[in-house]
Amino acid sequence: MKKISARIYTFLIFLFLYAPIFVLIVFSFNDSETASRTVWGGFSFRWYRKLFEDRLILEALRNTLFIAVVSAAASTVLGTMAAIGINSMKRLPRRIMMNITNFPMVNPEIVTGVSLMLLFVFAVRLFGGKSLGMASLIAAHITFCLPYVILSVLPKLRQMDQNLYEAAQDLGCPPLKAFFKVVLPEIMPGIVTGMIMAFTLSIDDFVISYFTSGTTQTLPIYIYSMTRKRISPEINALSTVLFTVIMVLLIIINVRSFKDRDSRPKASTPLH
């Protein structure tokens, strides 16, 4: 009975979480003008066609993808370097740095967004230049993506045999070449996972982007502006596309983690 009740409870939890998304996906194929009011008018790709014919949506999509790619690449490089530096620290400095690293993740997004907005406005007034826009968005996204990359790379550094790097140098390999030939392949799964997480977080972010975007619009900001007016059925199609992209990336992350776990050498049993 305990197992049955636990399964029923789990099913109800997942139903509560995913039923609204399922309804949204179903009604993204609704042909009715009142699709947002859950009145079924027949199966159609009408709203997907209108979605990809909308110039403003395509511009917001282009901005979102550009920001996500640049911020994910930059945060991956900086986060990997930071993880290597933190891993080489002693115990107390490492704990302090890990607390500093974890703070942006537990800090409310609205606090981060407002503080970054004030920082960028102050920098614009101090050094001159344009108002908030693409540059401030990329900088803000790098800021909140960095901790996730660091936390993805650090476990791989701890799992790696520290003697491999020294052994490569003992065999005549220069330090930089030893890093790229020995260390980088060992931590590559963590780097890829961190990069994909940074990419998905950048696509999904609204609160921080809203405060640091200026006149530049991303997809979450554009969706919010659409909901303030008459709710268009195009939102259903756009949300379905975003959900599908994020779901595919999450599946890739899980598949990579399973493959990495299966390829990890098992500990040999001692002989008696």
What proportion strand? under 5%
CATH topology of the largest domain: MetI-like fold
Low-confidence stretches: 267-272
Order of helices and strands: HHHHHHHHHHH
Query: How many β strands by DSSP?
Result: 0
Number of helices: 11
Structure notes:
The protein is an all-alpha fold. The protein folds into two domains: 17-53 and 228-258, no CATH class; 63-217, MetI-like (MetI-like fold, Orthogonal Bundle), CATH 1.10.3720.10. It has eleven helices and no strands. The protein has helices spanning 2-27, 46-53, 55-87, 91-106, 109-127, 134-159, 163-170, 175-204, 207-212, 219-227, 234-263. Helix 4 (91-106) packs across helix 6 (134-159). The chain is globular, with a radius of gyration of 23 Å. Residues 267-272 have low confidence and may be disordered.
